[in-house]
């Protein structure tokens, strides 16, 4: 089959302005809860984080680890590619693709680092193996081979063998993305999708329907 012939029509849901809540955070939570309850897909917390520095955009999938009225939180190595790009340009975007529900959410915002106290609290709640890996990996740096990476892991495992809790790695922590724009997308027949955009204007969210 040709790639040009691969398609499906979207018909499971609709989205009207009256369906949307005034607060986009509450609207996000409503869709997120539906996604969890549907149980149709894996990794509902997976989101694409897009960053840009030197006019070169990059994207990667990370996991959402906290959502509140301030914004969206994910964790990484601050010396990773995304960490360094956010240090240069904190403007970024998030994208959730819940394809079994024929839904997408796009968020634009500004990233800011969490405090060491916040980072340590979450870091020590992670599985021990993940804590060791965070210490062992110089994320985004080149490595000779898998054996070298495994050796780094084993060295950290031995280093902290007698420690009940690992300390926070000096280059590891979280970002809070504070949204300025939300877009909710619901697939519809004939590619006439429903799209609504919330834009923050003087501390108030303005809502518009967009053409597909």
TrEMBL record:
GO terms for molecular function: FMN binding; pyridoxamine phosphate oxidase activity. Residues 172-212 form the Pyridoxine 5'-phosphate oxidase dimerisation C-terminal domain. It holds the Pfam family PNP_phzG_C. Its cofactor is FMN. PROSITE patterns: PYRIDOX_OXIDASE. Keywords: Flavoprotein, FMN, Oxidoreductase, Pyridoxine biosynthesis. FMN binds at residues 60-65, 75-76, 82, 104, 139-140, 185, 195. Belongs to the pyridoxamine 5'-phosphate oxidase family. Catalyzes the oxidation of either pyridoxine 5'-phosphate (PNP) or pyridoxamine 5'-phosphate (PMP) into pyridoxal 5'-phosphate (PLP). Homodimer. This is Pyridoxine/pyridoxamine 5'-phosphate oxidase. The lineage of its organism: Bacteria, Pseudomonadati, Pseudomonadota, Gammaproteobacteria, Alteromonadales.
């Amino acid at each position: 089959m040709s790639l040009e012939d691969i398609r499906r029509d979207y018909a499971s849901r609709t989205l009207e302005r009256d369906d949307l809540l005034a607060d986009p955070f509450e609207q996000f939570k409503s869709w997120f809860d539906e996604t969890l309850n549907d149980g149709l897909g894996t990794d509902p917390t997976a989101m694409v984080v897009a960053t840009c520095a030197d006019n070169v955009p990059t994207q990667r999938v990370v996991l959402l680890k906290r959502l509140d009225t301030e914004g969206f939180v994910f964790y990484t190595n601050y010396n990773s590619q995304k960490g360094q790009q956010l240090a240069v340009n904190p403007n970024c975007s998030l994208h959730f693709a819940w394809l079994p529900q024929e839904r997408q959410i796009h968020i634009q915002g500004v990233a800011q680092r969490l405090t060491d106290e916040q980072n340590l609290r979450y870091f020590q709640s992670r599985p021990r193996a993940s804590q060791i890996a965070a210490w062992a990996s110089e994320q985004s740096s080149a490595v000779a081979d898998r054996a070298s990476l495994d050796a780094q892991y084993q060295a950290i495992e031995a280093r902290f063998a007698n420690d009940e809790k690992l300390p926070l790695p000096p280059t590891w922590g979280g970002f809070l993305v504070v949204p300025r724009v939300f877009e909710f997308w619901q697939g519809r027949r004939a590619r006439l999708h429903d799209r609504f955009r919330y834009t923050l204007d003087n501390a108030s969210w303005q809502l518009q329907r967009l053409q597909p």
